[in-house]
């Protein structure tokens, strides 16, 4: 199968291992690690790297992939909704990822606000999917139909 199998058997295993270590070290780029740290992805990188070193390549990559899926699910289902009554107006702050998974939480919070009230909604979200948009839009339409005023502001970090 392998044309140079006999030649490869003559190379000491320690030399091949050293070659792999050197290639692996050249793949590590400090600038990329800093970028990963800024985007809160460094733990994922370290888990994958440690899995590859301590287990083996396949298991390390699978461990990294599983961790990435868990991180993504956590981020997509993490959302806080705060409501407070300020004078004659209500103030609602939504932070995190506004996805279908948190629509029930959003709906429960918005249901606390009396119909026809004046409401300021601050969306500090990094993701808004269609289901969440529909829930927010339908609630806003119902509030305004009953005489309320709803102002929705998107807040973006600079």
From TrEMBL:
Any one annotated GO CC term: membrane
Transmembrane segments: 6-25, 45-74
Name of the protein this chain belongs to: Sulfate transporter family
Keywords tagged on the record: Membrane, Transmembrane, Transmembrane helix
PANTHER family in UniProt: SULFATE TRANSPORTER
Biological-process GO terms, alphabetical: transmembrane transport
Family annotation (Gene3D superfamilies): STAS domain
């Amino acid at each position: 199968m392998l044309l140079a199998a006999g030649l490869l058997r003559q190379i000491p295993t320690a030399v091949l291992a050293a070659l792999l270590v050197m290639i692996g070290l050249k793949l590590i780029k400090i600038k990329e690690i800093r970028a990963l740290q800024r985007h809160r992805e460094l733990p994922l990188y370290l888990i994958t790297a440690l899995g590859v070193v301590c287990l083996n390549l396949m298991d390390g990559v699978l461990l990294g992939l599983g961790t990435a899926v868990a991180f993504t699910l956590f981020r997509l289902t993490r959302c806080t909704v705060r409501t407070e009554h300020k004078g004659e107006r209500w103030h609602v702050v939504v932070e995190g990822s506004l996805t279908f998974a948190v629509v029930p939480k959003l709906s429960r919070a918005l249901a606390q606000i009396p119909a026809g009230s004046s409401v300021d909604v601050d969306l500090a979200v990094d993701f808004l999917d269609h289901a969440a948009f529909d829930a927010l839009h339908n609630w806003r339409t119902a509030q305004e139909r009953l005489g309320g005023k709803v102002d929705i502001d998107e807040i973006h970090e600079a």
